[in-house]
Design brief:
four-stranded mixed beta sheet, Butyryl-CoA Dehydrogenase, subunit A, domain 3, binds coenzyme a persulfide, alpha+beta, globular, Butyryl-Coa Dehydrogenase, subunit A, domain 1
Length: 386
């Protein structure tokens, strides 16, 4: 029994719908999707039919009109089944956020309904070969030529690459202006001069698609600029503030699944004539897993609700919940493999996949070291004010 977080009726419904998709579609297919490294198209169709792609999109653009908390509780369910599937869903929101945060009415009207209905997936293009943690070190350029922007460069490790129809991509528009010299654009999959690299082979989340986005004189209309010229870096930072609690919730679902598997196994596994759950060494491991999981859940839920109150600055709290829940997921999934021991190491049980999948949570959307920098710098600022 987990703590009651007093969800509204609507929120309980979101959990229920996402839980059903997870139990009926994701869990039965996750091993095969992982082994074949196959994109979960059929599952995402079911998510679209259940109207969950529009959870965070305003009703005027065909969405449900919810917010960060609604995304968190849906993502938590999906990642209980498979973080790879949940990542494909979350990455569409990540790609849509820049349009939502900074896009013109025209861009919102054109793209958000397609994303809300699940007709098209979105993706977010920031990372490059030499710009990961150092997000402002990107090299991709966009130059205005008449009434078109011309993009050149390569984005790396882009989730939903090759599967999405809509991409929000940051490029340098004036190198001399530092962080104020980058701008955000919407790219469509069919734009001339836009292509993809090969699908990457990954340690975990193998069902998700990760590819390079390659721009060779890619021409797009001038009105695909998202927000004002030179505001791209700021839009990226605000996007990540909004999306990181979603990554935290992937940690919650994975942590819950790892704990569930561990307790069920420990009750069944007999050694020295008793179920291993009766041994204190195992009980203490399970207790620590449960404590870490529930404290992370409390922090992530509180943070998501706070973010929905639209505070002026949310970087610190967003990073805090990302670190807490994803470090927890890594620890809890490693411990789950330990509780299941020899069986846990075999692919017949799901915990080895959970351990492989957990690792990316500490890396993508900003490594947990970068999150600690953000938190540390925010503390430094807060305490200089008082
Ligand atoms: N919201 C609004 N503005 C922000 C912001 C935020 N969350 N974070 C930074 N800014 C602003 C700063 O205030 C600064 O503006 P001023 O010049 O007016 O003060 C500007 O942006 C530059 O900020 P800063 O100097 O802190 O930028 P840095 O280049 O030092 O980088 C980090 C900051 C490391 C935090 C950033 O590069 C980052 O988040 N990196 C990780 C990126 C990431 O998540 N990559 C994973 C791939 S994305 S899936």
């Amino acid at each position: 029994m987990i703590v009651d977080y007093f969800l509204s009726e609507e929120q309980q419904m979101i959990v229920e719908v996402a839980r059903q998709i997870t139990d009926e579609k994701i869990i039965p297919q996750r091993v095969e999707l992982d082994e074949k490294e196959e994109f979960p198209s059929e599952i995402l169709k079911a998510v679209a039919q259940a109207d969950l792609f529009g959870l965070y999109i305003p009703e005027e653009y065909g969405g449900f009109g919810g917010g960060c908390f609604d995304m968190v509780i849906a993502l938590e369910q999906f990642s209980r089944g498979c973080v790879g599937v949940a990542t494909s869903f979350a990455a569409s929101a990540l790609g849509a956020y820049p349009i939502l945060i900074a896009g013109s009415d025209e861009l919102k009207e054109k793209y958000l309904p397609q994303i809300a209905s699940g007709e098209k997936l979105a993706a977010f293009g920031l990372t490059e070969a030499n710009a990961g943690s150092d997000a402002s070190g990107i090299q991709t350029t966009a130059v205005l030529d008449g009434d078109e922007w011309v993009l050149n460069g390569t984005k790396q490790w882009i989730t939903n690459g090759g599967e999405a129809g809509i991409y929000t991509v940051i490029a340098i528009t004036d190198r001399s202006k530092g962080p104020r010299g980058a701008s955000m654009f919407v790219i469509e999959a069919t734009d001339p001069g836009f292509s993809y690299g090969a699908k990457e082979k990954k340690l975990g989340i193998r069902t998700s698609s990760t590819r390079e986005l390659i721009f060779k004189d890619c021409r797009i209309p001038a009105n695909r600029l998202v927000g004002r010229l030179g505001t791209g870096f700021f839009t990226v930072m605000k996007t990540l503030d909004l999306s990181r609690p979603g990554i935290a919730s992937l940690g919650l679902g994975l942590g819950q699944a790892a704990l569930d598997e561990s307790v069920i196994y420990a009750k069944q596994r007999i050694q020295f004539g008793k179920p291993i759950i009766s041994f204190q060494a195992v009980q203490h491991m399970l207790a620590d897993m449960a404590i870490q999981l529930e404290s992370s859940r409390a922090l992530v839920y509180a943070t998501a609700r706070y973010i929905d109150s639209k505070p002026k600055d949310m970087s610190k709290v967003s990073s805090m919940c990302k670190v807490a829940a994803t470090d927890m997921a890594m620890k809890v999934s490693i411990d789950a493999v330990q509780v299941l021991a020899g069986y846990g190491y075999m692919r017949d049980y799901p915990v080895e996949k959970m351990m492989r999948d957990a690792k990316i949570l500490q890396i993508y959307e900003g490594t947990n070291q970068i999150q600690r920098n953000v938190i540390g710098q925010a503390l430094n600022k807060e305490y200089s004010r008082s």
